[in-house]
Specification:
The complex is a heterodimer.
Chain A: H1 5-16, E1 20-26, E2 29-34, H2 39-48, E3 56-64, E4 74-82, E5 87-95, E6 101-103, H3 112-123, E7 126-128
Parallel strand pairs in A: 2-5, 6-7
Antiparallel strand pairs in A: 1-2, 3-4, 4-5
Chain B: E1 16-18, E2 21-23, H1 26-35, E3 40-44, H2 47-56, E4 79-83, H3 91-100, E5 106-110, H4 111-116, E6 137-139, H5 146-161, H6 171-179
Parallel strand pairs in B: 3-4, 4-5, 5-6
Antiparallel strand pairs in B: 1-2
Helix pairs in contact in B: 1-5, 2-5
Chain lengths: 178, 183
């Protein structure tokens, strides 16, 4: 028998109450928000519960929402997959803009190691308890977290690039007003 | 042995010729020898490397220019061909390869990415390999056709032919390397 989304919603709200919410069906994936304080417990519950059985962590990634209020400027998105019933879910956990910290999921899924390092690398989100939280794709000397909106997309050392040909105006460029 | 008469020889340099002797400058002789046996070190990271594969294969045949031996050791190479996008994380490796080459050494930046970063106007890509190593010839194109790469090799041959044997110990050259922090 397939796992119904209403069952997932009931089980989660039954156990975690107001820490989960915002359930919404986007295409064929149930999405919802969880509180940072219980994120690890919720992922553990989703994995270990005998009905839910979300045995696979497909992806972990970050999002930056600079226009949101302070407490919701960062999000960590988990995608989980139940292989037995072939059901997927998407979990969003919003974090503080000044101090984005969340518990690591590496205690439950070893595969989260790489993706959490990547999320740290690009967004500067700290995964508490991660065994080796350092940059993975960018060079070690990099000081910025490039996917945050406050950092420029372009390389500072560019000397012969004309923004008009790249369809953009850089933050530090002076726009000629006619 | 081939009796064919279409064997190509390089042109004789300027000099004095007489019965049983030919006199010219040492610079020209050394330049001639160097220019016609440039051993390439391909440093291919993306699509320009595919074009270079065509360049070195039988159809375009870079061997016609004395470059039949691809050297995959920097220590036995004269001409570093950098082909493709160089990510900033790759830059120290490229630099190390250049440092391992022995003098005299020349560099060709093949394609838009190696020359200037190309379309990758972004934080993770080196905006031209001349930010980390000195470059002798830039080949434009995205990617350049094999003819263009061969043209770049021929341009380099001209440079090599006319290079003084003392250039590598000149203060200007030392200064150039020092500006890249290469000793």
């Amino acid at each position: 028998m397939a796992l119904e989304t209403s069952v997932i919603e009931e089980k989660l709200t039954g156990k975690f109450g107001s820490h989960v919410g915002g359930f919404i069906q986007i295409k064929d994936i149930l999405s919802f928000e969880i509180a940072e304080s219980v994120s690890n417990d919720i992922i553990r519950f989703l994995k270990e519960d005998s009905v839910l059985r979300f045995n696979f962590l497909t992806d972990v990634c970050g999002v930056h929402y600079p226009d949101n209020e302070k407490e919701r400027q960062f999000a960590v998105v988990y995608h989980m997959h139940n292989w037995m019933d072939n059901v997927r879910i998407r979990i969003k956990c919003f974090l503080d803009g000044d101090n984005p910290e969340i518990d690591t999921a590496t205690n439950l899924f070893l595969g989260a190691n790489w993706q959490e390092r990547e999320t740290y690398d690009f967004y500067g989100i700290i995964f508490k308890g991660h065994p080796q939280l350092k940059r993975i794709l960018n060079m070690d000397e990099m000081v910025s977290f490039p996917m945050r909106k406050e950092f420029p997309m372009e390389d500072g050392g560019r000397t012969d690039k004309d923004d008009r040909f790249f369809g953009r105006v850089t933050d530090n460029a002076t726009v000629n007003k006619e | 042995m081939s009796n064919s008469s279409d064997i190509k020889l390089v042109d004789t340099p300027d000099g004095y010729e007489g019965q049983g002797f030919f006199a010219t400058k040492l610079d020209t002789v050394v330049g001639l020898a160097r220019a016609n046996s440039l051993w390439p070190l391909p440093f291919a990271t993306s699509c320009c490397g595919i074009e270079f594969m065509a360049t070195m294969a039988s159809h375009y045949d870079v061997a016609r220019f004395g470059s039949e031996r691809m050297s995959f050791s920097p220590r036995q190479a004269d001409m570093l061909l950098v082909m493709g996008t160089i990510a900033k994380k790759m830059a120290p490796i490229l630099r190390q390869v250049y440092e391992q080459m022995s003098e005299p050494r020349w560099v060709i930046a093949v394609g838009a990415c190696a020359s200037s970063g190309g379309i990758f106007d972004t934080y993770s890509v080196l905006q031209g390999i001349d930010k980390v190593i000195p470059v002798d010839v830039y080949v434009p194109g995205c990617p350049p056709r094999p003819e263009q790469i061969l043209d770049g090799v021929m341009k380099l041959q001209d440079i090599v032919k006319s290079e003084s044997v003392r250039r590598r110990s000149s203060p200007e050259y030392q200064e150039l390397l020092a500006s890249y922090n290469i000793s």
